[in-house]
Amino acid sequence: MRRHIELLIGLFGLVELLCPRPVVAVATRLAYRTPDEFETREWVYTAARIEGAIFVLLGLAGLYTSAAPVNDDDAAAAVES
Question: Rounded to two decimals, what is the model's pTM?
Answer without folding.
Answer: 0.73
